[in-house]
Amino acid sequence: DAGVTQSPTHLIKTRGQHVTLRCSPISGHKSVSWYQQVLGQGPQFIFQYYEKEERGRGNFPDRFSARQFPNYSSELNVNALLLGDSALYLCASRLTGGGTEAFFGQGTRLTVV
Amino acid sequence: GESVGLHLPTLSVQEGDNSIINCAYSNSASDYFIWYKQESGKGPQFIIDIRSNMDKRQGQRVTILLNKTVKHLSLQIAATQPGDSAVYFCAENLNAGNMLTFGGGTRLMVKP
Question: What sign does the CA torsion over B11, B105, A27, A89 have?
Answer without folding.
Answer: negative
